[in-house]
Amino acid sequence: MSAAAVPLTTPGTPTRQARRARAAVAALFLTNGAVFFNIVPRYPQIKADLGVGNAVFGTALAGYSIGALLAGLLAGTAIRRFGSARVAAFGIVVTTIMTLAVPFVPHWVAFGGALFAVGALDAIVDVAQNAHGLRVQRLYRRSILNSLHGVWSIGAVLGGLMGSAAAGLRLPLAVHLVISAALFSAVAVAAYRFLLPGPEDAERSAEVRDPATAHDLTAQDLAAADGHPGAPPALHPRRRAFAAPAVRMLAALGVLAACGALVEDAGASWGAIYLSGDLRADAATAGLAVVAFQVAMTLGRLSGDRVVDRFGQRTVARAGGVLAAAGMGAALALPSVATTLAGFALAGLGFATMVPAAMHTADELPGLPSGTGLTIVSWLLRGGFLLSPLLVGLVADLAGLRVGLLSVVLAGAVTFVLARVLVNRASA
Asked: Under CATH, to which class is 16-421 assigned?
């Protein structure tokens, strides 16, 4: 077996508790995706009701990411104090309650404030559900995180379809979001009792707990990612010896995660507005932009664990960056409803495994307290969600939304370059 083809883990037979915990955490991922994406297809209506332009609307949308950035670094503390299960499940309930403020905002500033609160809660919930998913993954001893993100995408598709249907039926936004909040809060509460008990590091294997063993493996990974494949591990590993590579890795992983966020936000925040504005699609059709994106991302994530185990994180990420850049580039060069939906679908497929790969790699970096790498990369991911609506909205007002969506092409190119920090962990 080559150094570039290291198996993620040795597969084992999951216990009944592990299977039930996987189903429960998958339910949390589903609700987390569905809650916010019920709102997204209503953006054209909200924007029209507020009477603002693209740049102002993009600034309001940035409230979500600002809240997420400010609260995101608190996720590790919340998880250590209350546990990832409690934070993830009951955090979703509180998030659904906060979405009920959206229909009653009188001004774009108030809309941004409502999104600020939702984003702050979502950032903490997101880290908690990923932390719990990684606990379950350790019990399975093989990759399952991509499939959990796939279930999140199923939730996003479900939420997008609910929102598109509500928009097409002209259902009042308040009624629509009350139905969403009641439904998904019930799912989150029901899932809580089946999540894993005990401390957050209870499932780490003895091999990972052994500093020398864990450090040897990760030292090789860091050396390969840092441009020196096959470099031997240090004879006397210390945290300081790998501090600089770990910092470089976290920075690169954060940029990769931010690229994933930028592409996801382009589909979520601007797809419906681009279709309804530039391409004159009706409300129900415009809402299909986020549905096309999330359906493709769902398919990519549900098959992503096997693909990543077979070809490795680096290879899959680079291929995905090329696919997203080429697909969206062609759609913008040949604008129509059909090509735009196809372009968003290819972007969703291309970036399906990007965020899970960055999170997994960050969580396994040596010399960091439990959850620190995951929390930092998740926080930088939120930076991408903050910059995206501001950047695209500003460019859209200056040169048109069609030009603003070139950010997806740029993100694909950056991903191709920086994916070198991901280690190919393929099956032998």
From this structure: mainly alpha
